[in-house]
Task: inverse folding
């Protein structure tokens, strides 16, 4: 991967941290490293920038996280089927640039690409949570407010996290990515307690909407390598975007997946249609005016998000679900941020309660 950085900013209190040392030693020589007393100013949108969100992606800020590291998934809601995922926030924002990314809205006020030097506190927080919930299977992921592996060659956090989780029973770590940055993972024994998941899109969506991500073929090849190294793997077909020929392209993508990875070895595949709040849609169309996939005829759904017309969305998701079930009925399938009505139409049953689905996924 070849991510671009304009600048690295290090908060003074983190100057002596192991993370700052790694980032400074591995940064490309041309990228300036600056220090600041309080990095909260450095993560705000750059005044006068034509694209403040895009500029934030190219400014890596190594800083102290003041808020808790563990939080409920922001996608969770009583309106939707939910998988009960816990988010471990080790970074915020992402050097890639998908035109549909919800971070364009969620992080509009603090787009700097933050990495937290006090991530050992996150491990301690996780330890306390595990102690409070003995016997409960927990699924924790780092890929909600950032890509789990982007820049891992500079930060090296994945190794420590995988090693930490390898020793904790009842915990499943999910690293979610669109990169092929897996070299650090190949040097650690996860003891089956880390699952690496890839968001997959057909080449057509990759080309038009997923700037600086690894190609679909590179993602599949990386998945094959981590599987062979003892990790579990899962996949997200989310967002599924409806466009002319989409069903054919997504089914071909599933064929490529099953040719690369035996269906019996896939922990789960999640599905979800494209959805955008009006604010996100406006920001996305302004930042990516040439992406034809952002110009579909979505309708405003009862949850206030633009979504593909329900019969079309249900039919597309159902076709994909059928292909997955035909490959192996044992592959766990679930829907993300879809209402129960779509759940019934696509999967043929009502969604499981969040805790039950989360526990089932943690035990895969
Ligand atoms: S890879 Fe994920 S986090 Fe990064 S821009 Fe794309 S959707 Fe957003």
Result:
């Amino acid at each position: 991967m070849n991510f671009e950085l304009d600048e690295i900013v290090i908060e003074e209190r983190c100057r002596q941290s192991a993370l700052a040392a790694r980032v400074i030693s591995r940064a490309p020589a041309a990228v300036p490293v600056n220090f600041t007393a309080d990095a909260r100013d450095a993560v705000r949108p750059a005044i006068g920038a034509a694209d403040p969100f895009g500029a934030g992606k190219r400014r890596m800020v190594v800083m102290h996280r003041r808020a808790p590291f563990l939080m409920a998934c922001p996608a969770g809601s009583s309106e939707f089927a939910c998988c009960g995922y816990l988010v471990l926030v080790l970074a915020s924002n992402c050097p890639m640039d998908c035109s549909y990314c919800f971070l364009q809205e969620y992080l509009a006020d603090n787009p700097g690409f933050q990495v937290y030097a006090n991530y050992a506190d996150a491990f301690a927080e996780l330890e306390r949570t595990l102690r409070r919930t003995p016997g409960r299977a927990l699924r924790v992921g780092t890929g909600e407010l950032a890509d789990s592996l982007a820049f891992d060659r500079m930060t090296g956090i994945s190794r420590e996290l995988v090693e930490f989780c390898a020793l904790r029973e009842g915990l499943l770590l999910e690293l979610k990515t669109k990169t092929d940055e897996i070299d650090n993972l190949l040097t650690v024994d996860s003891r089956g307690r880390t699952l690496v998941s890839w968001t997959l899109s057909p080449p057509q969506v990759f080309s038009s909407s997923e700037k600086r991500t690894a190609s679909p073929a590179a993602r599949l090849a990386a998945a094959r390598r981590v599987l062979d190294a003892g990790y579990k793997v899962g996949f997200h077909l989310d967002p599924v975007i409806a466009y002319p020929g989409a069903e054919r392209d997504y089914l071909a993508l599933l064929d490529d997946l099953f040719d690369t990875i035996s269906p019996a070895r896939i922990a789960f595949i999640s599905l979800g249609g494209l959805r955008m709040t009006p604010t996100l849609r406006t920001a996305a169309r302004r930042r990516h005016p040439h992406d034809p996939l952002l110009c579909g005829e979505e309708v405003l759904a009862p949850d206030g998000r633009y979504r593909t017309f329900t019969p079309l969305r249900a039919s597309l998701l159902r076709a994909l679900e059928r292909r997955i079930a035909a490959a192996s009925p044992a592959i766990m399938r679930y829907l993300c941020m879809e209402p129960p009505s779509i759940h019934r139409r696509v999967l043929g049953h009502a969604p499981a309660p969040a805790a039950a689905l989360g526990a089932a996924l943690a035990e895969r």
Notes: Residues 12 and 46 are 20 Å apart (CA to CA). The longest helix spans residues 310-327. Residues 94, 96-98, 101, 103, 147, 178, 213 surround iron/sulfur cluster (CB under 6 Å).
